Amino acid sequence: MSATRTLTLRHVQLARAAFAAVAALMITFSADHSAIVGLSVFSGFALVTALIHMLAAWQVAPAGWRWPSILLAAVSILTGMAGGVPAWRSTPLFFVVVIAWGALTGLIELIAGLRARRLARTGSAPVVVADGARDAILVGALGLALAVGLLCVPTTYALRYSIAEAGSFTLTGITLAVGIFGAYAAIVAVFLGIAGLSPRSRASKDEGADTAAAGTAPADNEGSA
Fold first, then answer.
1. What is the pLDDT of residues 36-52, one digit of tens each?
2. What string of DSSP letters covers 42-107?
């Protein structure tokens, strides 16, 4: 008897979208875009995302396809914990941790998504894997774009400017970097939210019924023998 899965791909997509939206909103409505704030938001986002990946590996991913979720969870835990130590929070650490996280998770999701799409074309990938291939490819590409975008921002960048009747301000590299991460989180939230709310394919809806039918087929055959 197969265990009943309490989570589906839709739940994973919506959960990831929700916490990405929270991270984007926290950065957007914060007047302080320092490394301390940026790492605080990133740490919470990464650790919660790791929990979602662990649940996905246990409840959603079929056998043989759990490695992406496990690797994504491991990377997110390590980087989230590194960013969660208050004494370590600094501008260089923000760049190192978020670039590493974006590059590694982006590469993992991109490879997994491309492999799933290739096998889906031949009909050899499970339905849930085929349904999530496009999402993995795009989110993986966004992760790599996040890493590249942060690599293009000098950590010591500082631009002084003034606004009439408002005063003088300084745009720093960490301000740009935290803003880039916030933009990444907002885009991921929108995309995964749309994906999670989109209608499922008929094959995806019927997968559970087909599995149940396959499980009862031997008993029917024995009865007719």
1. 999 999 999 999 999 99
2. HHHHHHHHHHHHHHHHHHTSPTT--HHHHHHHHHHHHHHHHHT-GGG--HHHHHHHHHHHHHHHHH
